[in-house]
Write a structure and sequence with these properties.
This protein is an alpha/beta fold. The chain folds into three domains: 85 residues, Arc Repressor Mutant, subunit A; 97 residues, Periplasmic binding protein-like II (D-Maltodextrin-Binding Protein, domain 2, 3-Layer(aba) Sandwich), CATH 3.40.190; 100 residues, D-Maltodextrin-Binding Protein, domain 2. 39% of the residues lie in helices and 22% in strands. It has nine helices and twelve strands. A five-stranded mixed β-sheet has the order 4-3-5-12-6. A three-stranded antiparallel β-sheet has the order 10-7-11. Strand 8, helix 7 and strand 9 form a beta-alpha-beta unit. It starts with a helix and ends in a 7-residue tail after the last helix.
Length: 300
Amino acid sequence: MEFRDIEIFLVLAEELHFGRTAERLHITPSRVSHVIKKIERRIGAPLFARTSRTVRLTPLGERLRDDLLPAHLRIQQAVERAVAEARGITGTLRVGYSTPWCADLLLEATQKFRARYAECTVHIQEIQLNDPHGPLRRGELDLQLSELPVAESGITAGPTVLSEPRALLVPADHPLAQRENMSMEDLADVPLMTPGGNFPQYMAAVHLPTHTPSGRAIPRGPVFTYWAEVLSLVAAGLGAFPVSARGTRYYAWPGIAFVPFLDAPPIEYGLLWPTTGHTPRAMAFVDLLADLTGTTPADE
């Protein structure tokens, strides 16, 4: 039996559906059927009992599945180890994130990455809004998942992997907090806090506008350095800050409220990496995360 035939048999044994098996393996259902019939002819007995509605393994099929699975897994692991070594997918991959939901996605990807590339360790760390691209530029990170847009010399913006509805974080006693939703025009009624340090002006123009769509000025609140300051300053009634609406599930903080926007664009999060000096392990992680989120990885 050829390796591909074994793979088709094992996937069908898991899915028990010719269509789903074909979809997983990117082949046609007729190809699946042809391979299974060929294997059954070689063995001399049916491996699957088929009706118009169901597919199930015969006892012989179950024993063959149980015997083949461990060997198939060992072969896959051996090939992946060889590929990882050939491509240099070893060592430590350092990945930054800007929000807890980005961290959750990276942790999920890390588990799959470690299963595929056992010789590579992934280290994940938070980046701060006051210096959102500094660690990547200084070589402290290989990749990061953070807010877009990004137009930085020496940094490549890869695929957008998250797109989140936008909300405004406001003091719980602010009039906006009593509303079910708000518009961009309402920003004229509350001071927006801003990150200090090296937060790019082009990002501020997108996320922290100075005027509403009709041209009304949006007041400015305190300048902050770390995210924890935002929560404290908002709770103290000193300003507001635009965030992902998903933040309601992450920040249980007294004195704050999240008000969804009706008309604001979503907050998009994308992968970033150094334009020069990126590593095979970083690009392998980009590909895996793109597969995980159903996005298309950008060209290296």
